[in-house]
Amino acid sequence: MSRNKKTLQPDWISKTLAGAALGLGLALSCSGLLSLALAGLPLPVRGQLVMWVVPLIALGAWSGVYLFRSGLSAWLWLGGTNLLSWGALGAIRFWIASTH
User: Fold this and answer.
1) Could you give the number of structural domains in the chain?
2) 3 is a domain residue
């Protein structure tokens, strides 16, 4: 049997912390993007949609983090997606503020 196979590493603590911390950050930035996308809806409806999407994304990221090969790759991928989503949110908010 070959030892060169890449398998999932069982570093649960690192993966769990990455999913908890970065999954929440990703969920919050995605809810901000959703709020901007649904700006035409009345505030009570938009608020409920934005509020209920946070646990769905956070728990999805937290449970999916165990599919990464290592804790380091989980931190890097989720960190990169956080940078992209927060950057997009900031850029869109800046663009909206500069056009008004």
Assistant:
1) 1
2) no
